[in-house]
Amino acid sequence: MKLADSLQNINKIPELRQRILYTLLLLFIYRIGSHITIPGVDAAAVGSSAQSHANDLFGLFDLFVGGAFTRASIFSLGIMPYISASIIVQLLGAVTPYVQKLQKEGEEGRQKINQYTRYGTVLIAAMQAWGVSVSLASPASFGKMVVPDPGFFFIFSTVVILTASTVFVMWLGEKITESGIGNGISLIIMIGILAVFPQSMLAEFQSVSLGSKNWIIEVLILAFMVLIVAAVVMLTVGTRRIPVQHAKRVVGRKMYGGSTQYIPMRVNTAGVMPIIFAQSIMFLPNTFLSFFPESEVMQSVAGIFAYDSWWYALMFGTMIVFFTYFYTAIAFNPKEVADTMRRQGGFIPGVRPGKSTADFIDNILTRITLPGAISLAFIAILPTFLIKFANVTPGFAQFFGGTSLLIIVGVGLDTLQQVESHLLMRHYDGFMKSGKTRGRR
C-alpha cells in the first residue's frame, strides 16, 4: 500500500513523471543498441564461444554491458572508457597544478575538465576498440573464425563504430543526469548488470535441476545472498553524526542560533566510485593482452587477471581500499567544512574552531573510512570465494557481492533518494519515510 501511494504521488508531479519517463526512454535506447551486431561479425559464432571467455577481457566487460560482448554489439565497450578517462583526469587533479586550478574555477573550470574527459574517452575507446577488433579477427581468440572477411577495412570500421558508439553512450548518460533522474553513467552500468541477472539465475537453477547441486545448499546460498544485500545496504547508508552547535545571536528583534545540528559523515563516503575505478583499471591489462591472442605467454599472464583468480582478488581489493581513501579525500574536505562552520558561527562542543576542528573531523573521517574500505573490498572479492568453495556459477556469484551488487545497491539508493527529494519538496511522502533508513536523517 505504501509503495502504491508513492507511485501515485510520482504521477501527480508532472516534472518528476517526465524525468522518469525520459530516463526510461534513454535506457531503452541503450538496451536496443546492445543488441545491434557489429557489421562483419558472425554473432552466433561469438555467442557459442562466449563460455570459453568468461574470465578474460570479454567476460569482464560483458558483465557491465549487459551481454553486449556475447552478441558482438556496437555497444560492446559500454561506458567503461569514460570511467577510465574520469579516473585519469581525477588523478591528474591530485598531482597537476593546472587541473587543480581548473577545479577551483567553478562552472567554467568544470566544463573544461569535462571536455578533457571526453577527449580522453575517445582516445581510450579507440585503443580498446582496436584490441576488440584484433581479437575478433583472430581465429585463435575463439577457436574458430567469427569474422568471415577479416582485414584492414574490418578493423578500421570496427574501431570507428565502437568509438562512436561509446561517445553516444556517454552522451546518453549525460542527458540522463541533466534532464532525467539519477546519475546517468551509473544507471547505464546498473541496467547492463541487471540485464544479465535473469540468465544467471536460470543457469544456477538449471544446475540444481540437473542434480549437480543440492537444493538445500542452494536455499542456504540464497539466504546468504539476502544477508549480504542487507549488509551492503547498511554499509551504503551507515553514517556517523558529529554534533554542531551554533552560538546565539540577535539580529534586529529576532534571535538566531542556539540549535544543535549534525554533520552526517557516511561510512562509505566514496559510494560505488572506488569499485568502478578499480574495475576500470583491472580492465586495462586484459585490453593490452588482447592485442596478442596467439601468444601463449601473454595468455598465461591474462589468466592472472581472471576475476576468479586469487591474484585478481588481492589486487582488486587493494585498489578498492586505495580508491576509497582517494575519492573520500576529493569528495569531503575537512578544512572547508571547518571554515564554513566558523563563518556561520558553528562549533563542535569541546573542540576549538579552525584548525583543531579540521583535524578533529579529519581524524573521525579516517577512522570510519578504514572499516568502510575494508568492508567494501571484502564484499567486492566475495564472488571469488563463492566460486572456489561454494561451486557457484561465476555469473550468479557476482550478485552475492562483488562489483555488481555494490553498484546495484548504491545506484538504486541514490536514485530513490533523488526521487524522494522531489516528493518531499512538494510535500508528498517518499519511499523511505516509514523505514529505518538512517541516510534519511
From TrEMBL:
<dbReference type="GO" id="GO:0006605">
    <property type="term" value="P:protein targeting"/>
</dbReference>
<feature type="transmembrane region" description="Helical">
    <location>
        <begin position="215"/>
        <end position="239"/>
    </location>
</feature>
<feature type="transmembrane region" description="Helical">
    <location>
        <begin position="396"/>
        <end position="416"/>
    </location>
</feature>
<feature type="transmembrane region" description="Helical">
    <location>
        <begin position="184"/>
        <end position="203"/>
    </location>
</feature>
<comment type="subunit">
    <text>Component of the Sec protein translocase complex. Heterotrimer consisting of SecY, SecE and SecG subunits. The heterotrimers can form oligomers, although 1 heterotrimer is thought to be able to translocate proteins. Interacts with the ribosome. Interacts with SecDF, and other proteins may be involved. Interacts with SecA.</text>
</comment>
<feature type="transmembrane region" description="Helical">
    <location>
        <begin position="20"/>
        <end position="38"/>
    </location>
</feature>
<keyword id="KW-1003">Cell membrane</keyword>
<dbReference type="GO" id="GO:0065002">
    <property type="term" value="P:intracellular protein transmembrane transport"/>
</dbReference>
<keyword id="KW-0813">Transport</keyword>
<feature type="transmembrane region" description="Helical">
    <location>
        <begin position="79"/>
        <end position="99"/>
    </location>
</feature>
<dbReference type="GO" id="GO:0043952">
    <property type="term" value="P:protein transport by the Sec complex"/>
</dbReference>
<comment type="similarity">
    <text>Belongs to the SecY/SEC61-alpha family.</text>
</comment>
<feature type="transmembrane region" description="Helical">
    <location>
        <begin position="270"/>
        <end position="289"/>
    </location>
</feature>
<keyword id="KW-0653">Protein transport</keyword>
<comment type="function">
    <text>The central subunit of the protein translocation channel SecYEG. Consists of two halves formed by TMs 1-5 and 6-10. These two domains form a lateral gate at the front which open onto the bilayer between TMs 2 and 7, and are clamped together by SecE at the back. The channel is closed by both a pore ring composed of hydrophobic SecY resides and a short helix (helix 2A) on the extracellular side of the membrane which forms a plug. The plug probably moves laterally to allow the channel to open. The ring and the pore may move independently.</text>
</comment>
<keyword id="KW-1133">Transmembrane helix</keyword>
<feature type="transmembrane region" description="Helical">
    <location>
        <begin position="368"/>
        <end position="390"/>
    </location>
</feature>
<feature type="transmembrane region" description="Helical">
    <location>
        <begin position="119"/>
        <end position="140"/>
    </location>
</feature>
<feature type="transmembrane region" description="Helical">
    <location>
        <begin position="309"/>
        <end position="332"/>
    </location>
</feature>
<dbReference type="InterPro" id="IPR002208">
    <property type="entry name" value="SecY/SEC61-alpha"/>
</dbReference>
<feature type="transmembrane region" description="Helical">
    <location>
        <begin position="152"/>
        <end position="172"/>
    </location>
</feature>
<keyword id="KW-0811">Translocation</keyword>
<dbReference type="InterPro" id="IPR030659">
    <property type="entry name" value="SecY_CS"/>
</dbReference>
<protein>
    <recommendedName>
        <fullName>Protein translocase subunit SecY</fullName>
    </recommendedName>
</protein>
<dbReference type="InterPro" id="IPR026593">
    <property type="entry name" value="SecY"/>
</dbReference>
<dbReference type="Pfam" id="PF00344">
    <property type="entry name" value="SecY"/>
</dbReference>
<dbReference type="InterPro" id="IPR023201">
    <property type="entry name" value="SecY_dom_sf"/>
</dbReference>
<keyword id="KW-0812">Transmembrane</keyword>
<keyword id="KW-0472">Membrane</keyword>
<dbReference type="GO" id="GO:0005886">
    <property type="term" value="C:plasma membrane"/>
</dbReference>
